[in-house]
Amino acid sequence: MSGTERIGIIDIGSNSIRLVIFEYNAQGSYRVIDEAKESARLSEHVSEDGEFSSEIIKLVSTTLLHFRMLCEAAGTSKIRAIATAAIRNAKHSEHIIDELQKNTKLDIEILSGEQEAYLGFLGMINTIDIQDGYLIDIGGGSTELTLFLNRKIAYSFSFPFGSVQLTKRFGQDGMITEEKQKSIQRMIEQASHKFEWIRQYPGLPMVGLGGTVRSLCNVDRKNKHYSLPMAHNYHMEAAAIDQILARIQSTPLDQRKTIEGLSKDRCDIIVPGVIILQTLFRCCGASHYVISGSGIRDGLYYTEWIKPQLSSTEVLSNSVLNLLHQHPIVPVPHVNQVNRFTLQLFDDLQQQHGQPVRNRQLIDAASMLYRIGISIMFYNYHKHTFYLIANSRLNGLTHREIILCAMIASYKNKKKARLLLNQYPDIMFKEDLSLVCKLGTLLQLAIALDRSETQPIELLKARITHKELQLTAQASRSVMIEERQVTQVAEEFNKEWKLRPNLTFP
Questions:
Q1: Nearest to 145 by CA among 276, 233, 310, 242
Q2: CB under 8 Å to 193, separation ≥6 — which residues?
Q3: What is the pLDDT of residues 21-51, one digit of tens each?
Q4: Taking CA 192 as the corner, what is the angle to CA 190 and CA 196, rounded to the nearest 5 degrees?
Q5: Is 478 helix (H, G, I), strand (E, B) or coil?
Q6: Which of 19, 137, 398, 442 could form a disulfide with 144 if both were Cys (CB 3.0 to 4.6 A apart)?
Q7: Strands 133-138 and 143-149
Q8: Distance between terminal CA atoms of the chain?
Q9: What's the gap between Cα 20 and its chain centre?
Q10: Which fold has domain 4-111?
């Protein structure tokens, strides 16, 4: 493969029809370059005997044709189209697919509940560093619940109820009475009692996919004035979900659109979705909620392009390389050298600083990404680096760790670090300033050791002697540039480490 390729993923869901276009390059990096969504409410349009009207088939066909044209305009080499619960459970589903394919010239695959759960799991597990938990995907016509242990699916089941379907059955006016809420809860509890695994692993987090959990996350972030504009890997407590549900239920349907963060096309179906979420959360005895911004469409993409790495355990390192390769102007041999020196210095200073292993992962990522800001402009590239890391969703890190990584990678001095830290008072801790300064100055020293960006130093040894960090280097050519740069960063390093770097040669 040379250059880039693009692939379109179309998800015909029970509540909405969505398109995502991914771009993939020869270095293995990928990104989303376009998205589109149409609210379809397919589950609403299924008759009592499970039939789809010709009108709804025509409506879906029109949307799919529009999405196909978007894919063609973007130059996609392939389009994968899938259909989930609404069509899967409809009477004469094969006939519906035949009609849609005839109208749109698209190949459309009906996913089983098991396939739907698997693809959702793939999308999540490749983007969140989590070992064990429950995964819930609340759609319009079904709800997939999965137990994963050691990053692998242990059990999963697709329940035949979703937010649109329950709204149609229990509250077509968008309002759910207390009596109807209890009926929904009893129905879900009875359905879950058939599966022992649902109650066998209490205390695990519940990871949520789909529009219901995204809406709850958005409302919670708006309520808290959350300082990082990111939903993926956002954590919520059960009490927060309870409070949001109570607020929505007490708000008349025509006024719900004024609730900040709540999607306007979800106002009338959100309550049944939250009841499903809460009830299964309690049945599982889960500890808290984790929001995943990656799901079935991402999982389908991984099956197309990342086949050898499905369910990779290297979530963070894969994400770092993915982001790095989106900025080809960055000199890779240089950042590899900086990364090597950074990790060596971190390990050699371990007895001095006693940093936890997790901080090694942070500075590992920061040292690989510190130059990406140059792809915007050389001047003030450290500021661009901070923005790109803080807003690029580094998978495998918590929100606090993303900010830490961005601050370490863009570190200039303590004063500027403090100003950045103060922008995230709800996420960061006061003691994080000391951590950023320590790791930031360590990275600056590693950068100094390849200031020429020509990798003249072939071997480096570091040892602590009294109040000095003695750096003994073997070089293949002149290192005058590196010697001068080490001298320039020595004072700032000494302030944080109480050690003065001294570069010598045998």
A1: 276
A2: none
A3: 999 988 889 999 999 999 888 877 777 777 8
A4: 120
A5: coil
A6: 137
A7: antiparallel
A8: 46
A9: 15
A10: Nucleotidyltransferase; domain 5 (3.30.420)
Q: Which residues contact 307 (CB under 8 A, 6 or more apart)?
A: none
The DSSP output letter for 116 is H
Burial 474-486 (b: 16+ CB within 10 A, else e): eeeeebeebbebb
CATH number of 315-504: 1.10.3210.10
The answer to whether the 4-111 and 114-294 domains have the same CATH topology is yes
Tens of pLDDT, residue by residue over 372-430, are 999 999 999 999 999 999 999 999 999 999 999 999 999 999 999 999 999 999 999 99
Question: Helix, strand or coil for residue 83?
Answer: strand
Q: Which of 69-78, 251-260, 301-310 has the lowest mean pLDDT?
A: 301-310
Angle between helices 211-224 and 238-249 (to 10 degrees): 90
Domain boundaries, the chain: 4-111, 114-294, 315-504
Q: Which helix (H) or strand (E) holds 79?
A: strand 78-83
CA-based R_g, the chain, Å: 26
pLDDT at 310 over 60: no
The structure's pTM equals 0.94
Provide the 8-state DSSP code for 49: T
Both tokens of 105, joined, read 């010239």
Task: Decide yes or no: CATH 2.40.300.10 for domain 114-294.
Answer: no
66-102 confidence digits (pLDDT tens): 999 999 999 999 999 999 988 998 888 999 999 999 9
